[in-house]
Amino acid sequence: MVQDRLYKLREKMKEEGIDCYLIPTSDYHDSEYVSDFFKVRHYFSGFTGSAGTLVVNLESAALFTDGRYFIQAEKELSGSGIKLMKTGEEGVPTISQYLDQCLKEGGVLGFDGKVVMGDDADEYETVLKKKKGKIIWEKDLAQEIWTKRPPLVHHPVFLLEECYSGESTASKIARVRDAMKEKEASMHILTALDDIAWLFNIRGNDVESCPVAFAFCVITMEQVLLFAKECTEDGSKVWEYFAENNVTLLSYQDFYQYVSDIHKQKVLLCKARISCFLRRKLADDVIIVDRPNPTSLMKAVKNQTEMENLRKAHLKDGIAVTRFMYWLKKNVGKQDMTEVSAAEYIEQLRRENEHFIEPSFSTICAYGANGAIVHYSAAPENCARIKPEGLLMVDSGGHYLEGSTDITRTFALGPLTEEMKKHFTLVLRAMLNLKDTRFLYGCRGVNLDIRAREVFWEQGLDYKHGTGHGVGYLLNVHEGPNGFRWKLIPDYQQNAVLEEGMVTTDEPGIYIEGSHGVRIENELLCRKGEANEYGQFMYFEDLTYVPIDLEAVDISLLEKKDKERLNRYHREVFGKLSPYFEGEELKWLKLVTREIE
User: Fold this and answer.
1) Cα gap 139→191, rounded to integer Å
2) How many domains does the chain divide into?
3) What's the pTM?
4) Tens of pLDDT, residues 477-496
5) Domain that holds residue 76
């Protein structure tokens, strides 16, 4: 099927005079996850991961993706004729380098400029200029080939009340305008869906697991224009709120025409977050002030209302995940259980919570060797049956009115090898190290990542993903600009100074292909600690409270400080959760949070 689709794509490329066609994983808003309409790369490659770029030549094709998906991509690309390019690995070219290698003198590169970001397009253009070639950037060839392409759907939106958001839209707009004044900008163009949802205190369902609505935004000192679909679940409530905040609603489809009519303005925007198409629609007399969207940092720093709500959301979520752990331990080997049925059960438990909306991402429920696939996705027709042996890794989360959650626990289901217990214990030590870090204000995630990773590096081991990412408030579960990673990546927007109110995951892991995977993940809330002559000290407050499976721990590998940290955490877990458990469940909770010596 994939080969047939690639054949049709190449025939269309020949008609258009295109030698090489590039298909990223993106939409008009540079979203990490995309709706069905934008799953073009999946359609032409068969690869289902959330990140990757497909480059199709007239005689060959290559898919570029990162370390989270190497194992998955190898399986899904098998038999397609598409070569896997393991991004970041030694000897593997970047996309630009690959284009330089495969395009002939005078070659033509094509792509849909609405889904390729402007900075990426600039890199590709540099390659084409060197080769005296050109770019055709207005061709969405999928629209002509994909006969049953899903429509671009606009779902209803709802207003997030200020008892949850903690700040009015009027206040947020005023802060954005202050940022515009600092940069002497007369206009701000905003296309990131999570930023727009945060700014207007609205939430939607236009992207799976991301409660956002397709929209564009333009702010001047006199106007606020929202280009969106008029579609709400609560009647005129949202539009009344917009009117109160002097927000003018315009058609989503009219945005690009509006942009092309902008002249002699000084426009604040983030060039890395806007499309090539939008960049080229701006007139030559427009002065671009290229800075990160002010809303990016604003929404990452949760206010007092959001922080208190997040504690409530995580408590509810922790109760659900702990009950899942109890069910799993009591029933594995006694009833038929698969990765899919287990994932469905943990979602069922979450749905019993008040104000639960939906999962914050597709649950990763990976048994045995499947745990080595970092972003594994089980399907009913090919998922593993769960047996009373080995490890089960479950990475899951939920969206609540009180915020978003993301937690990973790895469970021992029966006998484990020494290697499995060793790896589990290393992951545990790394996770505890990072979450108990005290640091001076001004540190970034790149300064602190070593607190987790050193445990692995001492053993000659590593994991091919960041140690943590920011988490939105009832928004995208992956949110910049904060994160933990050891390697600086140019233009990667997850390296901000850690501010009080930022939420970041702590999720080291280890993945042994063909055998097992281990990941343990808590969400951490950055807080201010002591201030003295050395400066402002910071620390992390745990948001996640769920037992860590002691049956998988090799206690002999724990140092005294590791035991103290684990025991302290389990005392806190029991203190938080015990009021909500009784009878056999309470006895079990006390057992699994017991102190170790």
Assistant:
1) 21
2) 3
3) 0.93
4) 999 999 999 987 765 567 89
5) 2-145
